[in-house]
């Protein structure tokens, strides 16, 4: 379940690290909704449009990235920059467990 803080963090990181909005479209958001999210961040003062049309992160936006990261439990540089991939996460198996795949699951 994606919450508002995760979406805001993704928007701010997209602005800071090159404007890639693909992760947001993968979450199911339309381009118009993503623009609405960006406009909200502009109104809050976290994002700024320059005269040449580029979009930049303000110092307040940098602080907001750090704050959102701490709120979501991401405290290091790499955990703020790289999103965890939770969709294919599996439960940890016991150390003495021996995995034997089903013959139907093998590609040959």
Number of domains: 1
For this structure, the quaternary state is single chain
pLDDT under 50 segments (min length 5)? none
Shape descriptor reads elongated
Spatially, the strands of the biggest sheet line up as 1-2
Radius of gyration: 19 Å
Provide the residue-averaged pLDDT. 82
Q: Provide the CATH topology.
A: Arc Repressor Mutant, subunit A
Give a quick rundown of the structure.
With 108 residues, the protein is mainly alpha-helical. The chain is 46% helix and 6% strand. The chain has a two-stranded antiparallel ribbon.
Task: Using brief descriptors, characterize the structure shown.
108 residues; mainly alpha; two-stranded antiparallel ribbon; 5 helices; 2 strands; 46% helix
Written account of the structure:
The protein has 108 residues and is mostly helical. It has one domain (4-81): Arc Repressor Mutant, subunit A, CATH 1.10.10. It is built from 5 helices and 2 strands; from the N terminus they run αααββαα. It has helices at residues 4-16, 22-26, 31-44, 59-71, 77-81, and strands at residues 47-49, 55-57. The chain is elongated and about 60 Å long.
How are the SSEs ordered, and which strands pair?
Layout: H1 4-16, H2 22-26, H3 31-44, E1 47-49, E2 55-57, H4 59-71, H5 77-81
Helix pairs in contact: 1-3, 1-4
């Amino acid at each position: 379940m994606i919450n508002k803080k995760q979406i805001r963090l993704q928007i701010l990181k997209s602005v800071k690290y090159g404007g890639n909005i693909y992760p947001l479209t993968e979450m199911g958001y339309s381009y118009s909704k993503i623009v609405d999210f960006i406009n909200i961040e502009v109104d809050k003062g976290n994002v700024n449009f320059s005269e040449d049309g580029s979009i930049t992160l303000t110092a307040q936006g940098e602080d907001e990235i750090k704050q959102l990261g701490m709120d979501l439990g991401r405290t290091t540089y790499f955990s703020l920059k790289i999103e965890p991939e939770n969709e294919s996460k599996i439960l940890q198996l016991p150390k003495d467990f021996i995995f034997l795949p089903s013959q139907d699951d093998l590609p040959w």
